[in-house]
Amino acid sequence: MGMTITEKIIAAHSGKERVSAGELVQVSVDLALANDITAPLSIKELEKQRINSMFNPNQIVLVADHNTPAKDIASAQNLKLMREFAQKNQIKNFFEGGSVGIEHVLLPEKGLVLPGDLIIGADSHTCTYGALGAFSTGMGSTDIAAAWALGETWLKVPESIKFIYSGQPNRFVTGKDFILFIIGEIGVEGARYCAMEFTGSGISTLSMDGRFTMANMAVEAGAKNGIMEADTLTLSMLSNIPLSRKPKIYRSDSDAEWKDVIEVNVSSIEPQIALPHLPENTQSVFSLPRISINQSVIGSCTNGRIEDLRQAAEVLRNRKVHVGVRLYIFPGTPAILLQAEKEGLVQIFLESGAVLCPPSCGPCLGGHLGVLAEGERCVSTTNRNFVGRMGHTKSEVYLANPYIAASSAIAGYIITPDQLM
Amino acid sequence: MGKTIAEKIFEKKVGYPVKAGDLVIARIDMAMGQDGTTPLAIQSFKEMGGKKVFDPSRIVFIIDHNAPSQLEAISMLHDSMRKFAENYRLTLFEIGCGVCHEIMVAKGLVVPGDLVIGADSHTCTYGAIGAFSTGVGSTELAAAMISGQLWFKVPETILVHLNGTLPPGVFSKDVILYLASQIGADGATYQAIEFAGPIIDQLSVDERLTISNMAVELGAKAGIIAPDEKTLTWVKQRTNKPFEPIFPDPNAVYIKELTYDCSTLVPQVALPHRVDTVTSIGSLGEVIIQEAYLGTCTNGRSVDIEIAAKILQDKKVHPKVRLIVAPASKEILLEAIEKGWIETIVKAGGVLVTPGCGPCVGTHQGVPGDGWNVVSTANRNFKGRMGNNKAFIYLASPATVAASALEGKITDPRKYLR
User: Fold this and answer.
1) DSSP states of A73-104
2) What is the domain range of residue A376?
3) Is rRNA processing a UniProt keyword of this protein (chain B) (predicted)?
4) Closest residue of chain B to A77, computed from CA coordinates
5) Which of B71, B96, B348 is closest, CB to CB, to A371?
6) Contact at 8 Å (CB) between A10 and A19?
7) B351–A98: do the CB atoms touch at under 8 Å?
8) Quick one: A281 and A239 in the same domain?
9) A84-120 pLDDT, tens per residue?
10) Considering CB atoms only, which of B70, B346, B352 is closest to A368?
11) Record: contact A355-B349, CB cut-off 8 A
């Protein structure tokens, strides 16, 4: 019996010839990251256990991306705690201030996550790096603290579900729609503790940015990880980055065992929207009644990359944001901000009436920079639309791709670019 | 007997001769409210039984203090402003447009000779273009929105005459900080200040705005600069509104005339926690900083970002410093992008935040941690001003802030400007 990519990566990190789904294993980790919400808990846990030396400081990544620039004293104190921990332990991958980008956009950009890696992070969307052919998954702060100290963690090897995407996507259909569509099909628990392996010619049509968006949302179907085989596009992206280690490319065996195999022809997917209050409440935007909005957000670890900004700018060029709508745009990293500026995208945004915000998680989790008031509606390129996620428990969040978020900001209600007058 | 600019503006607004000390009820030309104060004004408006506003074209709301909103409660307050503005057809500048005091002058909403009130202490900024403008409370704003009038005591005026030429590396911020040290934080309480002399003549309108902005830090009701050719050109580029510039009479009577020579002035720094505790940068000693802030209604304009970018060009912000940059308006941000200043600042490691008040008032976007030292281009360094009463704020010019961000300690910018 063969193995899936996920099983192969886990086996390679557990020192075993082979592992199979359901097995409990001890694995070495290549990288364990935490952000400014979760790292302080990890650090305090280590202090509590009186653990002073880390297994390998180069395995540790700290990104202060959630409440940056510090929104209040508590946030500032958390940053201070992280900074002192980084200094004490000589952690060179500590990102704050002007070096901050959204962790899951920043790490691939910096060459810190590679195909074949096993990565854990104290953030649910750590699964993003699966787009590179890495096994990556979110864990709690104490798990991360233990991994920092020991260089390893334990896992149950997940069963794998294979998603075969075929066909050519329609106009304004992106990786976001691929993943929203599938979450709508299988539900938010449809892949619980499973590996979602995305494959097929439909995936090949996506850019790396589109693939990151897909892997990012695997957790929204309950998955342990989302993963794709690294291909020539992956390698060409990596060839432009100074890498910290050597990538290892794994492929699933033809006789690998799958819990399920699901086929999707992407040519039948229309631009998707996830209605409040679950990412599984998806439907085609075309069959949506008129839903007016107060706010639109373009950014996040799901859709804050350069391709996303280009898609938004394509719609916003020579148009004005509807009176009564606030459009917030958060580039994923400082490098993406600079690239967007170089391409004239930032100018398009500002001239359209959009608000440019610093590279950060911003309003995605309701922390700051665009919190929703009671009764307000927001269309957002982020990954979660739970009750109260972006502010008031009586506000509503609709998830969509950057084309839809931009065109809806213009129209004042949820619409696709081709429906704009 | 001659009259000061303040007296002449009030005279024009009430229609009869007035002198300092008179209590008058005057018609106002513009009333401004921001999101820190307007929700209270709206509440007072309702409590006073307000049914309509005196003139929708003379009331402006601006969302700049919490932009974008960091709390549900504040989002609700923003919505109350939006609803009120929509009901009464007022102009509302949304999140991202910029800081209220920059918008009011840059959009040509205030012109020379105007009498303007704003529910914000730094409303005195518009004195730089020859208006009498002053900060009021939220209830006064509510009353003015209903009646179009407000009562004032016509203030006495101090004439501050600034001689000489500013040396390189010394800016209008250094001048006003120096004046704060000389006059004191309550040295001009309920008085108007007229700033005049060769130094004022040499400064651009943008640089003069910095001086008038901080008049309130000397306790002043207004900080006025008589319009000159520069002012008139600047204003006409921004508005078609008719206006009548007001000049002081040659024999105007001032309560005090103060003269300073600025030719030997050096960069100034206000020490925590008072704006008038100011020292020359050379006698400061070593002050290690954790945060540097460039922006605000005092120093968030193009001229400020330009000088900072010049100092930061091809260099890196000190690894232990967070440099936060908030352009004062969207237009300034666009200009800063076009001129390459933003690229310079971001490459240097600065954080660009949304045009607005940023961390100046401690609501979000750069609240310091306990024990931090912050060097800031803002106008106030009171204890807790930036959100943490265990932090220490030093006020300085944009050049000093940029140089300090590079070195991780408060640094004389002049070595970077040779």
Assistant:
1) HHHHHHHHHHHHHHHHTT-S-EE-GGG---HH
2) 271-419
3) no
4) B369
5) B71
6) yes
7) yes
8) no
9) 999 999 999 999 999 999 999 999 999 999 999 999 9
10) B70
11) no
pLDDT beyond 80 at B68? yes
Interface touch A347/B337, C-beta < 8 Å: yes
Indicate which of B352, B361, B389 best probes the interface with A, i.e. most A CBs within 10 Å of its own CB: B352
- Residue B124 annotated in ligand binding: no
If pLDDT is split at 50, 70 and 90, which confidence band does A1 have?
confident
Structure confidence by residue, pLDDT tens digits, B95-129? 999 999 999 999 999 999 999 999 999 999 999 99
Check pLDDT > 90 for residue A65.
yes
Q: What is the ipTM of this complex?
A: 0.90
Q: What angle is formed at CA A270 by the lines to CA A406 and CA A252, rounded to 5 degrees?
A: 105
Q: Which structure tokens are listed for B86?
A: 């929509």
In this complex, the residue of B79, B337, B388 whose CB is nearest that of residue A373 is: B79
* pLDDT higher than threshold 80 for residue A43: yes
Please give the mean pLDDT across all residues of chain A: 97
Predicted local confidence at residue A243, as pLDDT: 87
Q: Are A106 and A168 found together in one domain? A: yes
In this prediction, residues A52-67 reach a mean pLDDT of: 97
Which chain A residue is nearest to residue B348, measuring alpha carbons?
Answer: A98
Whether residue A260 is predicted with pLDDT greater than 90 in this model: the reply is: yes
Burial class for B89, CB neighbours closer than 10 Å (0-12, 13-18, 19+):
exposed
Contact in structure between B113 and B129 (CB atoms under 8 Å):
no
Q: How many domains does chain A have?
A: 2
Which residue from A minimizes the CA distance to B83? A324
Nearest chain A Cα distance for residue B260, angstroms: 40
* Residues paired with B293 in a beta bridge: B324, B376
Give the whole-angstrom CA distance, residue B36 versus residue B119. Answer: 9
Q: Is A357 annotated as a binding residue?
A: no
Searching chain B, which residue's CA lies closest to the CA of residue A97?
A: B322
Note the pLDDT of residue B1.
81
Do the chains contact at B370 and A370, CB–CB below 8 Å?
no
Q: CA A259, CA A163: separation in Å to the nearest integer?
A: 11
Domain end marker among A231, A264, A297 = A264
Query: Closest by alpha carbon to B335, among A144, A300, A346, A156?
Result: A346
Domains of chain B: 5-239+254-260 (3.30.499.10), 268-407 (3.30.499.10)
**Residue B262 counted as an annotated binding residue:** no
Q: Of the residues A220, A237, A264, which one is the last residue of a structural domain?
A: A264
Q: Do A220 and A283 reside in the same domain of the chain?
A: no
CATH number at residue A142: 3.30.499.10
Same domain, A251 and A199: yes
Beta-carbon contacts below 8 Å between A and B: 144
Q: Is the full-model pTM beyond 0.80? A: yes
A171 and A314 fall within a common domain: no
The overall average pLDDT reported for chain B is 97
Give A280 to chain B, closest Cα distance, Å. Answer: 26
* B240 φ, ψ (degrees, to nearest 5): -100, 0
